[in-house]
Amino acid sequence: MNIAVSKQQSTSQALPWVPAAHERSKLLRLHNVVDALVSIAEHSGDTASFLDEATATAMELTRATGAVVLLAEPSRELSIAAARGQMACVDEAAFGRGQTLARNAVDSHQTLHSDATDGDARLASGACARHGLHSLIATPLRYGDEVLGVLEVCSSVPCAFDAIDEQGIALIGNALGGALGRQVALDEHARLLAQLQAALQTTQAKARKYQDAALYDALTGLPNRAHFTARLEDVCREHQGLPDGFAVLFVDLDGFKAINDLHGHAMGDAVLRATAESLTSSVRGADLVARIGGDEFVVLLCGLRDGARDTPTVASNIVASLARPRTIDGVELVIEASVGWAPHDGQSDAAAIVAAADAAMYRNKKARQR
Q: How many C-beta neighbours within 10 Å does residue 84 have?
């Protein structure tokens, strides 16, 4: 009798302890779910690492043996974004064919739970039995009214998951859906921004092309008359009252018409390009060479210590450089030119100094023809 009483007392004392421990376990599991949700909300990595971490979290919370995140494509196909454990062995097409709960969860917009996949009418036969998936939970990844994909966990034993597991996976799915939706929106914004940037670059390239067309000679690539005149006007203003700080050379090819008539315009174009190269190589990088029309070129010599003294030497070097024999399109030629120059007097504007250099060129040309 005493022993019986003792057993009864022992049992009565133990009964309150069992449900208390169970409640503490539930609270701990719910606390872990909350921590997981916070982690998902605060994740700052890229989408791939974010989803990979989410599958690991889902497995840890539910003691699942596999987890997968599938994204819903516009074609309704499901593509694997992250997979772990047993789910990593399942063929991607099996999810879309309804061999797990993933397809049904996406279509129904509901969290689905199967304690025993064997004989579950919702599942197409095949994948679960082949891969030993005996318990499943699948939840849609919702963003507003849109389902972006599905989170699914599995276990290799039947009845592996309880209501807390189902609620936890549903909550994680909601958090994932929100995070993915925001990421999709960011990606879309980034795509639109990239399109805008590409369009801007195209527009800028076209603007540069039009600008080049307005300021550069298409044949030689040299600055044209407008470009040269604008630069010369700036230099004239900078040297107002300071004579001999720069000079302008005017270069005109001799016998250029005869070259066109004898060898054709293609040869004439080649001679003009060769002239541009020769002039550019004969002066400093700070100087400006331009083609202002036909066979006429001008050179702006900047930063001279004594324009009246230095300019004739540069002009002589240019004439000698052009006169060196060269083969152009298979024909050996020398390029003859007449050069005139005008050092700045400290007062003249751009038009006046170019006119002075042009007049000097014609005087020199006539002198050479005598």
A: 18
* Residue ranges covered by each domain of the chain: 16-189, 225-369
CA distance 151 to 344: 81
Report how far apart, in Å, the C-alpha atoms of 268 and of each of 191, 251, 290, 292 are: 50, 16, 17, 16
The Cα 295–Cα 286 span in angstroms is: 23
Options 3.90.1150.10, 3.40.50.300, 3.40.50.40, 3.30.70.270; CATH of 225-369: 3.30.70.270
Angle at 59 between CA 53 and CA 65, to 5 degrees: 130
* Residue 300 near residue 228, CB atoms below 8 Å: yes
288-293 and 296-301 as β-strands: parallel, antiparallel, unpaired? Answer: antiparallel
Q: How many CA atoms lie within 13 A of 60 on its CB side?
A: 12
CB-based contact 232:350 (threshold 8 Å): yes
pTM: 0.49
Q: For the segment 128-186, what is each residue's pLDDT rounded down to a tens digit?
A: 989 999 999 999 998 888 899 999 999 999 999 999 899 889 988 888 888 887 776 66
Q: Which residues contact 273 (CB under 8 A, 6 or more apart)?
A: 219, 220
- 280's tokens: 């550019």
- What's domain 16-189's architecture? 2-Layer Sandwich (3.30)
